[in-house]
Write a structure and sequence with these properties.
CATH architecture: Roll
CATH topology: Structural Genomics Hypothetical 15.5 Kd Protein In mrcA-pckA Intergenic Region, Chain A
Mean pLDDT: 95
Low-confidence stretches: none
Oligomer: single chain
Distance between the termini: 10 Å
Shape: globular
Order of helices and strands: HHEEEE
Number of helices: 2
Largest sheet: 4 strands, antiparallel
């Protein structure tokens, strides 16, 4: 699953456009590193940090 889709699926954002803006602004971290590619493919066990929430992709 792609990062922007994951944020939408977890209801952290209301639209793909909102996800794109937040990811591009550097507000999202994957495994502790700022990720600005909305199409980044998530692997099982990846930790996504967004607005003080830690989500684990399974």
């Amino acid at each position: 699953m792609k990062l922007d889709q994951f944020l939408k699926w977890k209801k952290m954002v209301s639209s793909g456009g909102e996800a794109k803006i937040l990811i591009k602004s550097g507000s999202v971290k994957v495994n502790g590193e700022i990720e600005n590619r909305r199409g980044r493919k998530l692997n099982k066990g990846d930790k996504v940090m967004f607005l003080k929430n830690e989500l684990i992709f399974e």
